[in-house]
Hints:
The chain is globular and about 50 Å long. Helix 6 runs parallel beside helix 8 (238-253). The chain has a five-stranded mixed β-sheet with strand order 3-6-4-7-5. The longest helix is centred in the first third of the chain and has 16 residues, at 51-66. It has helices at residues 5-16, 51-66, 86-96, 145-151, 163-173, 199-214, 220-233, 238-253, 264-272; strands at residues 25-30, 41-46, 71-75, 100-108, 131-132, 140-144, 177-187. The chain is α/β, with parallel strands linked by helices and 279 residues long.
Amino acid sequence: MGDRPTELRALLDSVAAQEGAPAAVVVLGQGVPLPTLPDGVACVELSENLGIPGGRNAGVRWLRETGGVDIVVVLDDDGLLPRKDTLRLVREAFADNPRLGIAGFRIADETGASQRRHVPRLGGKNPLVSGPVTTFLGGGHAIRMRVIDEVGGFPARFFYAHEETDFAWRALDAGWGIDYRADMVLQHPRTAASRHTVYYRNTARNRVWLAKRHLPAVLVPAYLATWAAYTIAQRPPLSGLAAWWAGFFEGVRTPCPPRRAMRWRTVWRMTRLGRPPVI
């Protein structure tokens, strides 16, 4: 977004310090001019803010055009890689498991602690334990380029919120695996998701779109009822709750094609992984 030049430089320095062969690095400016970047770092300045998923898709297009990219790593501009072996671990993970489609990083603050919402398991349990999961965190992750080619990019209309879950469900339905890797760490300041002004509205709208796009019809009302109950139980401020319901009904009223309901064997697979698609 162009407002974190110091943090961006620290991130790029941490990428440059990684062990092994250097990575192709591109910084995407979402409708803003980019600062002077280190040598070897490409810049792509978009004419407008396409949102998180649209921006990622633009970055993937640039990498695809450069050729020779097998794995796409996405990092938030206010994070950094505290370990020098992270990209080596990424390469090894994908080489060791040909069906691994996505590796999600552990998001940790300056003290090494991870917020519950940053652990892609029910209840935010066991942040230091790696294993297979059903979704991943947008702030730090790696995706096999072949998966993007097979299932498509991130849903640009989402703009912000739940675009990772949409992509993860498509990858799972195509037979790819998703691993949460506690040893692949992105250091990121401790924040609240609600700091974004679009948080409540987009979270609700995109939940509905997610269900309408991917869930078997019988599961859609169960999924949405669960999340409505959870949201109310969190006791958001009245302004936030009003924005949430506005987003919910916007999602109900408006389509977000295409609809490709996941197979029941994918539902069962997600259930065995501890997160059936009604929670």
